[in-house]
Automatic annotation (TrEMBL):
Transmembrane residue ranges: 6-32, 44-63, 69-92, 99-120, 150-169
Keyword annotations: Membrane, Transmembrane, Transmembrane helix
InterPro entries hit by this protein: FLQE3_permease
Name under which the protein is recorded: ABC-2 type transporter domain-containing protein
Organism superkingdom: Bacteria
Amino acid sequence: MFTDPSVLGFFFVGGLVLLERDQSIFSTLYVTPLKIHEYLISKVMSLTLLAAVTSIVLFIVIHQSSFHVVPFLLAVILCSMFFTLLGINLAVRVKSVNAFLYTSPLIVIVFYLPLVDYIGIFDTPIFFILPTQAILLLMESAFRGAPIGIYLYSVAVLAVWIGLVYLWTYQSFQQFLKDKCFT
């Protein structure tokens, strides 16, 4: 369930942005009242909604009512937001879908490292600074429950990472538009 919202957000938005680039959609952003923030938020929210709906349907079908919905939805929503922003950031930096697909493992692998601990291969406290660890803790607490500190830690770490990647993506997208439209 971790990979569904992350892969959906990251790879799907990468394809969308690259398709929009090929169709010269971005040139129109300068003549419409649509702001970069609004564009980014619309992409993040639409893919996050899609990830949340599909994940909750899958979870209900598989686990019926034997899980806590709030930590699960928090994990899915925050995971999707983070990886969607990361996907946009990479998509504006590459020239083609192939370049996106070849480059994406270099970025995603860093954030997937806590999965190594989750499956019991390697454990280090450094993983706790990565957003993936927070996502995994929230997903795990959907089944076992968790102390309030786990929820606070997870939401705080994810909020910081989402904020940082949003600022980075905003700047990257702004530079991309300047390069694309004025060169």
